[in-house]
Amino acid sequence: MTDAAEAIALETAPVPLLEPREGLPPVVVDQAALDAVVTAFAAGTGPVAVDAERASGYRYGQRAYLIQLRRAGAGTALIDPIACPDLSALGAALADTEWVVHAATQDLPCLAEVGMRPQRLFDTELAGRIAGFARVGLGPMTEHVLGYSLAKEHSAVDWSTRPLPEPWLRYAALDVEVLVELRDALEAELAGQQKLDWALEEFAAIAAAPRPAPRVDPWRRTSGLHKIRRRRQLAAVRELWQARDKLAQERDSSPGRVLSDAAIVAAALAMPTTVAALQAVQGFGPRVHRRQLELWLAALDRARAVPEAQLPPAAAPHEGPPPPRAWAEKDPVAAARLAGARAAVTELAERLKLPAENLITPELVRRVCWEPPAEPTAPALAGALRTLGARRWQVELVAPVVAEAFAAALVEPPQ
């Protein structure tokens, strides 16, 4: 963020946004109303602001429970995607339109589930990061850039609630009220910093990205898994996680509301063999129904029955370089390259006033440090980074400083 922009942001107190300009629209819950929205938004002009509300922490998965849109000439629309699960016609009507989304990678998967996929987008959260803003949430960005304050007290409510209370709907409508204005101001800020091309390349990459592949061994993301040391106990975590996931899906409930990660880890460490012993484990107390206790105990019994050769490995299967903490022992020269490259990237990011992880993905730096080109010149490193998926603007900035860091590592090898 430029000094001038900082000064402007501090000049006046923010103005609260309390009501949508044209009033609160009714929620679209039937085909006739949806058809009218499609017609109106197809006839609108300029970019379309898009947002989605999920029920994270309440329901299973990340589906959308409310979708908000706003476009010049069309106004604001609030759509219930549970009542109207197929929004492909709306997606088609907006196919040639730039979408303005805040933190696009969070909302695009649930929008794709109902048939809405942008071909072009402007991510105001990512734009804020590249512009160097310290706080990039929608509320702080709207306040600092436009001088409006947004109430955020409903951000973590259960959006699967029906009917949705009017204050929640008002909050949701205001989230897209000035999103296009924020986009325009950020575009001007990025242009002034000569970073607009960087941001546009990032936005294009997000829009073109394929759906992520299913995660391998998702149970390994259980919080507290680092406490588990034995493979049999890892099997217990896996069986409990899978049993919880199945039950959560059946109930359409957040897995954490069915059984906490802490309880899974505690049970895996204790490996109780009876219902009474399981009840003594934290997270399985007297409030847990006996039928559920038997379900969890059955998962532990399955873990005990896994043949030794089929127990999960202590570490997750991993492609690419080893953890950096092991580099000094495995390859001291690579460790020196990594230390130098990290320092160089951090210094460059600070000079450019953007987060280092947005300048270049840390994993790409690790990979090119572990397996560098035979001749680690700037052009060769640029080719390697491009092959790994770095964007053109990132390569142009990062490859030269990484090449210098590699050269220094060769001149001053580790002791």
UniProtKB/TrEMBL annotation:
<dbReference type="InterPro" id="IPR036397">
    <property type="entry name" value="RNaseH_sf"/>
</dbReference>
<dbReference type="InterPro" id="IPR012337">
    <property type="entry name" value="RNaseH-like_sf"/>
</dbReference>
<dbReference type="GO" id="GO:0000166">
    <property type="term" value="F:nucleotide binding"/>
</dbReference>
<dbReference type="InterPro" id="IPR044876">
    <property type="entry name" value="HRDC_dom_sf"/>
</dbReference>
<dbReference type="Pfam" id="PF01612">
    <property type="entry name" value="DNA_pol_A_exo1"/>
</dbReference>
<dbReference type="GO" id="GO:0006139">
    <property type="term" value="P:nucleobase-containing compound metabolic process"/>
</dbReference>
<dbReference type="Pfam" id="PF18305">
    <property type="entry name" value="DNA_pol_A_exoN"/>
</dbReference>
<dbReference type="Pfam" id="PF00570">
    <property type="entry name" value="HRDC"/>
</dbReference>
<dbReference type="InterPro" id="IPR041605">
    <property type="entry name" value="Exo_C"/>
</dbReference>
<dbReference type="InterPro" id="IPR002121">
    <property type="entry name" value="HRDC_dom"/>
</dbReference>
<dbReference type="GO" id="GO:0003676">
    <property type="term" value="F:nucleic acid binding"/>
</dbReference>
<protein>
    <submittedName>
        <fullName>Ribonuclease D</fullName>
    </submittedName>
</protein>
<dbReference type="InterPro" id="IPR002562">
    <property type="entry name" value="3'-5'_exonuclease_dom"/>
</dbReference>
<dbReference type="InterPro" id="IPR051086">
    <property type="entry name" value="RNase_D-like"/>
</dbReference>
<dbReference type="InterPro" id="IPR010997">
    <property type="entry name" value="HRDC-like_sf"/>
</dbReference>
<feature type="domain" description="HRDC">
    <location>
        <begin position="230"/>
        <end position="310"/>
    </location>
</feature>
<dbReference type="GO" id="GO:0008408">
    <property type="term" value="F:3'-5' exonuclease activity"/>
</dbReference>
